[in-house]
Amino acid sequence: xxxxxxxxxxxxxxxxxxxxxxxxxxxxxxxxxxxxxxxxxxxxxxxxxxxxxxxxxxxxxxxxxxxxxxxxxxxxxxxxxxxxxxxxxxxxxxxxxxxxxxxxxxxxxxxxxxxxxxxxxxxxxxxxxxxxxxxxxxxxxxxxxxxxxxxxxxxxxxxxxxxxxxxxxxxxxxxxxxxxxxxxxxxxxxxxxxxxxxxxxxxxxxxxxxxxxxxxxxxxxxxxxxxxxxxxxxxxxxxxxxxxxxxxxxxxxxxx
Length: 256
Fold this sequence. Notes:
The protein is mainly alpha-helical. The chain contains eleven helices and no strands.
């Protein structure tokens, strides 16, 4: 990477990059790692992990050129962090429950942030969640932080009631025709759906991805059946497409 960034002999594209221009590539590589894992393609996983590591090296090289830090310091920092956050492994501390361990972990993270920023004495308990996370992941993390400080339903039953309440409010907003209000209420519905997933111990991001995959497979089946009939989707009535959808549910479930 130092050669690629050489001012005279380096690659013009690599030389043009900075922290901000690399953001989409770094995010993309992380998603490609996840994709390789979900496809259970371990050869591809090895390759994608290398691509993700490249992003770390790239950022570290830019930082070193600016006199900020280098790759060794990045490695040293994460090593120290892992040791400090695992006193039950590297020291004689004992936690008697996952809750106790999680509380200690959150406290350690808070103390780290305070050590790096003198203005965090009165920071919100919701601080520390990256604003650029996918919306479902960010929502779940925010709710987990609030829940860890007692702001949560103790049981799942009221959450079901809240989902129905929010759904009714979406319908009322739709009937009003007020588009900004509709968007607000749909957002509230999605938020409480994430809350329900938390209480049911379901990862909402994973659940939605799996549901989307299932939808895609069933829709592909519909496309295949329509193609066999010598038509395209727009030439079919919705009732016929619905019938193919129900058929897809039966057929694909049997294949699985």
